[in-house]
């Protein structure tokens, strides 16, 4: 029944997109229509994916193929639930002098809350539509919050992580595995917070684990938020 309601609400907009070639602004607006809901369920996530696919098409497939050839995987978009974001910020112990990097920032669900907590945050994502949505959401915030936010399409596999004091991430294991090798060179005291997927257990042991809403299943089902500190 919930899926049927979602189809009724979003089908006209989705059909419109599928019958035309939307520009970036149109897609951002359509994305926001669905993404503004905090209680994103599987049906709404599916609607988001269809909207994204209708916009990105060939360009997106080429990006995935080219990155696969370079051994650089990509991560599908799922918004981090609001109570998971709150847990991530609490576990990181974010202070106003922190520089937080949101890896695979999507539409800014994490980075916006980091800025509201008073810390500077840079969100990274290779998807220009997600970045446009994140920037739009940031622009609608008060100036004191917007000024703390920056978004970049730089490849996270090429970043120098030593410039961040906190890393926030909701990434899949085949991305966390190669990235975690680069985390070794970060300064002592750097905090790493990973939602849903832990860092490779063979080398990384969390200092704290909390439970939060699951990205795929409705409450009461939960998943882990994992906190690590570089020593």
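Sequence proposed for the structure above (231 residues):
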């Amino acid at each position: 029944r919930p899926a049927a309601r979602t189809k009724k609400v979003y089908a006209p907009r989705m059909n419109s997109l599928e019958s035309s070639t939307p520009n970036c602004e149109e897609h951002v607006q359509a994305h926001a229509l669905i993404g503004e809901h905090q209680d994103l369920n599987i049906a709404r996530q599916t609607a988001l994916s269809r909207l994204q696919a209708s916009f990105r098409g060939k360009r997106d497939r080429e990006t995935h193929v080219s990155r696969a050839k370079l051994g650089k995987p990509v991560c599908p978009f799922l918004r981090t639930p609001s109570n998971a974001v709150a847990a991530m910020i609490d576990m990181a112990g974010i202070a106003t002098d922190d520089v937080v990097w949101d890896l695979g920032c999507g539409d800014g669900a994490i980075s916006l809350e980091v800025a509201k907590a008073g810390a500077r945050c840079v969100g990274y994502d290779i998807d220009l539509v997600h970045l446009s949505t994140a920037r739009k959401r940031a622009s609608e915030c008060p100036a004191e919050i917007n000024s703390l936010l920056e978004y970049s399409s730089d490849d996270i596999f090429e970043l120098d992580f030593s410039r961040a004091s906190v890393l926030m991430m909701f990434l899949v294991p085949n991305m966390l595995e190669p990235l975690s090798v680069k985390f070794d060179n970060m300064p002592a005291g750097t905090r790493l917070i990973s939602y849903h997927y832990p860092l490779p257990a063979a080398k990384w042991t969390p200092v704290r684990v909390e439970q939060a809403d699951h990205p795929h299943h409705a409450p009461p089902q939960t998943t882990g938020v994992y906190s690590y500190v570089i020593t």
